[in-house]
Protein 1
Amino acid sequence: MRRWYGKLLGIFAGAALLRGNPLLGALIGLLIGHAFDADWFKSPRDNPYAVLGLTEEASDAEVDLAYRRLITQYHPDKLTGAADELRRQAEGKARAINGAYDRIKVLRRKGRR
């Protein structure tokens, strides 16, 4: 089900804030409410599937395959002779990949109960 309450609250808030031109305020509020309803301001960190380059409809096998592909690419041990900055970036990316994979597994376990 799509969210709608951000649009409704945006219309009322925009009309109340711009008393001189409530129609313009309602329109601006509607646009801002739509942005919040559509998760335009959501961080990629909030979506573990985006870290792995997948959608929420991905199967368990696709999640495992994407995890293995990415972790072998960004694992810090693969970059033993690389510069320190490159190793730090790879460690951060590997940490994000591991966290996203763990979070997906927890979410899927909760969904099966």
Note: The mean pLDDT is 85.
Protein 2
Amino acid sequence: MNPNELTLDFSVVRDLRKRAGMTLDNVSQQSGISIAGLSKLERNQNMVELDTLYRLARVFSLSATDLLNLAESCSAQTKQSESYTSGPFHFEKIGFKGIDCFRATATRGDELSKPEAHGDELEICWVQSGSIQITLPRESHILKPGQALKFDAALAHSYQILEDCELTILHIEKTHRF
């Protein structure tokens, strides 16, 4: 198989259908797609057209893009974390398409005024222990254990470590739907 060739596995439709407790007939009635067509699709015996993808996705309260993504990568992925230091933070990082997950620790009194460069992402900072102050252009937040802050990572932001802390930081790619 050509490595550039896109492989789609629509057996995920069967998984979605069964998880929803639906029969082929139920899905057929709600989508307007024939039972034979659905059965072939679930067994990867025919290709799906855009209109079919859209109608089928709506049955499961998904977007056509979400259903296509499930068909493209229905297998779980494992990764090994990488450890590194950036400014006052010691990180363990795991990255997958669209999201980077960081476990971070830092020591009281440390500051970071120019965090690592971000793309077009949202950032979530969740404090497990200690406390931290996050300053954005027009606001400042002090977070304690169990608290989290979500903001646009494109904004200038800084961290001031108020107490030795352990954090989870997520960088989530923004989705642009047209």
Note: Residues 1-5 have pLDDT under 50 and may be disordered.
Protein 3
Amino acid sequence: MKDTILDEFQDTVIELLVRNKSIIDLITKYQDSNARVNRAIVKSVTQCGCIKVHAKKQAFPEDGTFEEIRNSMKTHLEGKLCESCRDLIEKDIGRNLFYLASICNTLDLNLYDIMLKEHERLKMLGKYSLR
């Protein structure tokens, strides 16, 4: 069932993408949609104020276990997104997914297969695939 929603999404993107079929157009649209996601998050901090960023150097135990190190890392965020900011960010991420799917379609790649392969790599490498 889960694989069908991604395939269905990718098929819908094929039907709806009319004007910007050039890979060059798709790459720039994808970059622009990514910038819009970033901008919406920044506006949640600077204009709305529903979330705050308190960033500082990440401190973690040098000789700690993997779990201790993972648990000591922070997001630097305080607060929760308000409904308005959440809606805008979700919309922008959706547009970003649209252009990602468009790029996959143009390159004859299947988004679901890519996710499966990446999931398998992550499971296989475990904590050695840290990012």
Note: Residues 51 and 80 are 6 Å apart (CA to CA).
Protein 4
Amino acid sequence: MLCGQDFSAWHRIKSDELWHYYSGDELLIYVIDETSKLNIFKLGNPLLHENAEFQVIVKANTWFSAELNKGDYCLVGCTVSPGFDFNDFEMAKEENLLKIYPEHHDIIKKLCKK
């Protein structure tokens, strides 16, 4: 669950990750694809949140982060396939991401752990 100003900082894993919306407000998932394009997906209830989806997939080895769009909280779940292992998890270092993707400076600075 993400609440208030909580966010999921930029990271990547070695497996595909499927995010599931369960309850609450809309979540924005930021994904930098293999062409360096920043994609923004809205995770939420499409009956309540315009252009939202109940599920969003993030491909393996892709940098991504997430934050609330508006509101107080979003309850989500994630399914990782073929499976999750902490050895396959990499938290982004702000300076490294900025060197690779300078065009995404503002969102990288906003959603990296200090």
Note: The chain has two helices and nine strands.
